[in-house]
UniProtKB/TrEMBL annotation:
Repressor recorded as keyword: no
Record protein name field: Peptidyl-prolyl cis-trans isomerase
Record's catalysed reaction(s): [protein]-peptidylproline (omega=180) = [protein]-peptidylproline (omega=0)
Domain PPIase FKBP-type: 47-139
Species of provenance: Methylobacterium indicum
Keyword Isomerase: yes
Enzyme Commission number(s): 5.2.1.8
Coiled-coil segments on the chain, per record: none
Enzyme class: isomerase
Alphabetical list of Pfam families matching this protein: FKBP_C (PF00254)
Any one GO molecular-function label of the UniProt entry: peptidyl-prolyl cis-trans isomerase activity
Residues making up the signal peptide according to the UniProt record: 1-21
């Protein structure tokens, strides 16, 4: 009986880990994307200004690390023209397929983030980043 309970528990843990990993899709560039909420509004076109709330963390060994920035903490969304290089490549790619009202988690490899240079003393060189983003509007 104990053995069957142990096996059932191990199977549940394995299935949960597999489902968690499977919830992210990986684009050809290496960006990992998971839709937490699929929006119902318009999808931005290149050059349109988007308004987003976000929180960013360092991401290492498959785990969320130290938070380094959040528009929610400032209570002010970030506005930028999508697809124009105003933000890191991972953001341009990850937000270009969202719809207004959507919430998405992005895992951004260094080559789509800040690369070998890092940023502002808070993001080390060659860091993988994790962002929770919410697309508030497009204009």
């Amino acid at each position: 009986m104990r053995r069957s309970l142990f096996l059932a528990g191990a199977l549940t843990i394995a299935m949960t880990a597999s489902a968690s990993a499977a919830s992210f899709s990986t684009t050809p560039s290496g960006l990992q994307v998971k839709d937490d909420v699929v929006g119902t509004g318009p999808q931005p076109k290149a050059g349109q200004t988007v308004s987003v709330h976000y929180t960013g963390w360092l991401y290492q060994d498959g785990k969320k690390g130290a938070k380094f920035d959040s528009s929610l903490d400032r209570k002010q969304p970030l506005n930028f023209a999508v697809g124009t290089g105003q933000v890191i490549k991972g953001w341009d790619e990850g937000l270009s397929t969202m719809k207004v009202g959507g919430k998405r988690t992005l895992i951004i490899p260094p080559e789509l983030g800040y690369g070998a240079r890092g940023a502002g003393g808070v993001i080390p060189p060659n860091a993988t980043l994790m962002f929770d983003v919410e697309l508030l509007g497009v204009r």
